[in-house]
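R.M. (postdoc): so does anyone remember the format we settled on? I'll just put the structure tokens first.
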């Protein structure tokens, strides 16, 4: 079965950095568009960044210039490098995979990121 497992979350001070990873299994990774989403308490889940199966990246305005999404198809893994983090980046971060033809969609279980001094 398909599994997406996020890791790398934790507590980080404002201005610091964190790298999230999402390891995928049970799917042909190179045929999936991958994205990171986040959900803060009391708010709706929102798109953070998206990377196509051939590497084109799209970012939410709130993270442009600070976050970088990347993928390693050989390792079936997508990353989110978070730099210059702010308290408003505090949320549960989720990884999502969408098949480029069928649009079959899978979500990870999420990893908590807390930005606080």
């Amino acid at each position: 079965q398909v599994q997406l497992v996020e890791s790398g979350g934790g507590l980080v001070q404002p201005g610091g950095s964190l790298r999230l990873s999402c390891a995928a299994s049970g799917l042909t990774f190179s045929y999936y568009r991958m994205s990171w989403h986040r959900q803060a308490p009391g708010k709706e889940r929102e798109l953070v960044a998206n990377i196509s199966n051939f590497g084109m990246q799209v970012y939410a305005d709130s993270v442009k210039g600070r976050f970088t999404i990347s993928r390693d198809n050989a390792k079936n893994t997508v990353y989110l490098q978070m730099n210059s983090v702010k308290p408003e980046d505090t949320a549960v971060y989720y990884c999502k995979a969408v098949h480029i033809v069928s649009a079959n969609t899978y979500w990870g279980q999420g990893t908590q990121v807390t930005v606080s001094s």
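R.M.: ...and that's the designed sequence above, right after the tokens. Also worth knowing: The radius of gyration is 13 Å. DSSP finds no helices and eleven strands in the chain.
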